[in-house]
Amino acid sequence: MFDYLQYVRQENFPHIWCAGCGDGIVLKALIRTMDKLGLSQDETVMVSGIGCSSRTPGYVDINTLHTTHGRAIAFATGVKIANPDLNVIVVTGDGDATAIGGNHFIHAARRNIDLTVLLYNNYIYGMTGGQCSPTTPRGANASTAQHGNLEPAFNISGLAIAAGASFVARGDAYHVKKLETLIGKALQKKGFSLVEVVSPCPTAFGRRNKMASPVKMMEQLRDTVVSVEKWEKMTGEERKGRFRTGILRDIEKPEFTAEYAKLIEKMRPEE
Amino acid sequence: MSNDRPGKVRMMQGNQACAEGAIAAGCRFFAGYPITPSSEIAENLSVMLPRLGGKFIQMEDEMAAMGAIIGAALTGQKSLTATSGPGFSLKQETKGYASMAEVPCVIVNVMRGGPSTGMPTLPAQMDVQQARWGAHGDRGVIALTAKSAQETYEQTIRAFNLAERYMTPVILLIDEITGHTTEKVIIPDASDIEIVHRKKPDKDPENYLPYRFTDDCIPTLAPFGTGYRYNVTGLCHNETGFPTNDSNEIQCLIERLTRKIEIYEDDIIRNNELMLEDAEIGVFAYGSVARTAQAAVRICREEGIKAGLLEPTVLWPFPTKAVLAMAQKVRAIVVPELNLGQMAREVSLASQCSVPVHKLGRVDGSPIPPQQLVEKIREVV
């Protein structure tokens, strides 16, 4: 059995997440992947913003930086540029990264700076009590959309691809083995990499949307997730109500800190 | 301040002097966002930093720039951002984070007129209270000022030294006049410049507490990547750096954030004086207005009016003792400034109402000419 103790800050448990929350599942997947890749705990920095997902760093025994709402990627950009030898992981949520922090998200993707962003998408502001987020589906209920959400939702992975990210994948908290593979590829990618993790929030989202049971939310993930390979063969009608997981983009392009290193080399006075 | 000091003489504007001072202080990371009248600081550093192996990045907005310098500082770098009024407003929350997490960094604000977009190309001193109280929450604040390119160079170095010594963000407030005036700057030899580096941990990682309560009230934050794994947060935290809900720990933390500046006030505060010993009318002036005040005091003396100048080079912590001492000597105090009395209010408080404090506020984007201040002093006499 895998021993998590080397990687966690035991003194900070029990964690703050509600029963049925997917965030702990993602945390375990991340830890197993870090172990598999042999990531040095001393040389890895985890940066987060504000929200349920952003409490993840408190539980991981590495260098951790819990910042202000929306700004995790901005802080992480400073860490990575100042010391490119560090592995920099950002843990954020749908509200943190695509509402208040949307500007940093798209510009880090455009810049293609070598950050690995784990974005837990639970369709809601969980920590503040269930207000609608940029990914709350149209028509769904939230504490600030009690008559049904009027706004269309962001496609987060699509946003990252359009902004220029070199690696974009979507996974979910039910298909954990696949999630680990995706996180592993993201961590190994030299460039801006996003793993959007669809993670259930029965307390703040499910309860208002006829899915109060954590099991029911998990079953829904099981039944609506389709692999990207299968998705390609499906008709528009078959895709309805489902979403795809897997690697959505994986390309090679110049990475910011590597380009900066070349600039410094070019500027170096000749001997 | 130091025109007789040996060194290399150069002509440069205040904004360039700021960039030169930053490099001399050991700054190797700049993140910023374009804004008038501070952009030359970024432009100069975009040229200088890569040549020295340092890092420059233009971020997507002001908050990002502030976040990036905090991130860089946590890797051990000395880091800087520069902005002006609107950008300074945008940075406040993240600046408060640097106070709370005790991350050393320097924020230069080349002040222009406000509120809002105001006067992008014209001078003002309207951000002096924002520098103290702009971010939410109680904490001590250090804010310096400068009245010339020479002082901007020196105060930029001092800002880094204070940030590193007291583990706090330090603000340098200059104004458009100082930022854009090209004048003589004497660059001393590197060996003549005092450089301060933050404390290093004196314990091994197992026994290390980043926010340990020590007599000096200053935490020791090891650079990320050096084997000291700890947590940094803007939440109320205890000595470990992890969030706490313990009321004693919270009380200790917030009191310490204010106390750690208060107990060093005498080391931080520095004032210049001009003919203050026998003065009957005291003038309190800072930044570019201090140059007006120097001229006005001399004119008054020629006319037989015993005027004297108290010129703080540090606005926060406020030089309360020096103001009170002046108030006990003079018949009245005049405070000329490019706002409607932001520091005059502090002067009144510090003088404990022992003497009348007269405001001379100009907010039309023009500097205060010496004659206008002389007239005010005559009126007060």
Detailed description of the structure:
- The complex is a heterodimer of chains A (about 270) and B (about 375).
- With about 270 residues, chain A is of the alpha/beta class.
- Chain A has 10 helices and 10 strands.
- Chain A has an 8-stranded mixed β-sheet with strand order 2-1-3-4-8-7-10-9, with helices on both faces. In chain A, strands 5-6 form a two-stranded antiparallel ribbon.
- The longest helix of chain A is centred in the N-terminal third of the chain and has 15 residues, at about 25-35.
- The termini of chain A are far apart.
- With about 375 residues, chain B is α/β, with parallel strands linked by helices.
- Chain B contains 13 helices and 16 strands.
- Chain B has helices at about 15-25, 40-50, 60-75, 85-100, 130-135, 150-165, 175-180, 245-260, 265-270, 290-300, 320-330, 340-350, 370-380, and strands at about 10-15, 25-30, 55-60, 80-85, 105-115, 120-125, 140-145, 170-175, 180-185, 230-235, 270-275, 280-285, 305-310, 315, 330-335, 355-360.
- In chain B, strands 2, 3, 4, 5, 6, 7, 8 and 14 form an 8-stranded mixed β-sheet that branches. A 5-stranded mixed β-sheet of chain B has the order 11-13-12-15-16, with helices on both faces. A two-stranded antiparallel sheet of chain B has the order 1-9.
- In chain B, strand 7 (about 140-145), helix 6 (about 150-165) and strand 8 (about 170-175) form a beta-alpha-beta unit.
- Chains A and B meet through strand 2, helix 2, helix 4 and helix 10 of A and helix 3, helix 4 and strand 10 of B.
- Strand 2 of chain A pairs parallel with strand 10 of chain B, so a sheet runs across the interface.
